[in-house]
Amino acid sequence: MIRTTVLALALAGATSSATAQELVFGGGIVDFHSNAGQAAIVEVEYRFAPFTRLGPFDVAFGVAGAVHDTGDLWVGAGLVNTARLGGAWFLESSVMPGYYDAGRANTDLGHAFEFRSQIAVGYDLTPTSSLSLAFQHKSNAGLGDINPGLNALTLRLHRKF
User: Which residues of 94-114 are buried (b: 16+ CB within 10 A; e: fewer)?
Assistant: First the structure.
């Protein structure tokens, strides 16, 4: 219950000061290190309007949160980069440092500070709706005594406002 409350407060606080540019809802599967196996993941991401362009990428600030069916929670914030590939296709990448709370001992990633790096390919269904397939990796980058990390594959629905 406390993990859900922390996630809700983090996302509510992030959205209170600005009008949403994009909300992303995702679900998929997480592959932990060999000790923990797999779990389901549900995630929400909020993106502000892009603030600059870097080569082919529009760069925006975003906040995200994820929960696993093992009780794990991650909330983070960072940069989201989006490039148009032609037609309705797009490519995304992001790096978000954040807070991770393990739901059980065997899903411990070694530190409460975990980085999420992600890459996704997507397709615009309408001017305000898109689907994407994302691969992400979470790691403490060697900050903890152990660094088993996790990988996730998610299918995501994007809603632009």
Answer: bebebebbbbeeebbbbbeeb
Structure confidence by residue, pLDDT tens digits, 22-48? 999 999 999 987 677 899 999 999 999
Q: What is the pTM of this model?
A: 0.84
Which residues, 6 or more positions from 55, have their beta carbon under 8 angstroms from its beta carbon?
A: 83
Q: With beta carbons less than 8 A apart as the criterion, state whether 154 and 27 touch.
A: yes
Mapping DSSP onto H, E and C, the string for the chain reads: CHHHHHHHHHHHHHHCCCCCCEEEEEEEEEEECCCCCEEEEEEEEEECCCCEEECCEEEEEEEEEEEECCCCEEEEEEEEEEEEEECCEEEEEEEEEEEEECCCHHHCCCCCEEEEEEEEEEEECCCCEEEEEEEEEEECCCCCCCCCCEEEEEEEEEEEC
Domains and CATH numbers, the chain: 2-160 (2.40.160.20)
Sign of CA dihedral 40, 32, 121, 56: positive
Q: Exposure of 54 by Cβ count < 10 A (0-12 exposed, 13-18 middle, 19+ buried)?
A: exposed
| Cβ contact 80:57 at 8 Å | no
